[in-house]
Design brief:
Strands 1, 2, 3, 4, 5 and 6 form a 6-stranded mixed sheet that branches. Helix content is 40%, strand content 15%. The chain is globular and about 55 Å long. Helix 1 (8-16) packs across helix 2 and helix 7 packs across helix 8. It is of the alpha/beta class. It starts with 5 loop residues before the first strand and ends with a helix. It contains 10 helices and 6 strands, in the order βααααααβββαββααα.
Amino acid sequence: MSRAHVPFSDLRTAAYCPRKCYYQRRLDADEREPPPEVAEIRDLERRYETLLEDGHDLAGEPIAVPPATYRDRLDAARERLVADGHWERLRDPVARDVLASGRRCRGIVHKVLEDPLVPVLVSAGKPPTNGVWEPQSVHAVAAAKALAWEHQRTVEGAWLEYPASGTIRRISLTTRRKARYRRTLRTVRELDGPPARIDNRSKCETCEFADECGVRTRTLRSLLGFG
């Protein structure tokens, strides 16, 4: 069992599905690169002020909600964060795309804020109704721990931005989140072979490793008796 640094991406994937992480780790490095649209969505974060301008056409932007909804949601986020004194910190971080190496894991932190020291992760996906997705919670704890290790300072929270939805959320590093991170880290380190399949087969429907994994998924057509 290797004690090399575990990549943030492995932790995030294993928190979603350990079996998917196993197959993903077998790919070549170039095959694990995110598709171009991920960078396009993350780039929205750098252009919030432009996106909020009345004359800006949002129809051609890679957003995940209708333009009017997007502008209202992002404008409300800005007002809330300005009132709390966080908007300028998030817009002008002390560093971007930092490779952070902790005691056990490493990876890219999209933005680093100071006073207090916290990581910011920019997600290309959609947020849940409340809070953040479990894999992103694990990723955030890993990023926070890596920064804390490098700077020898306490890090007690993290920010998650979902620029395609105009949503910005802050999380605290709770005991539950830290415990989930430790369990996931242990899972990744023990991946000597394919782990047991997960019970939530809905995750298999869009998984690129479904055939290799051997999971049989059923389409809506087949469930209705047409296939």
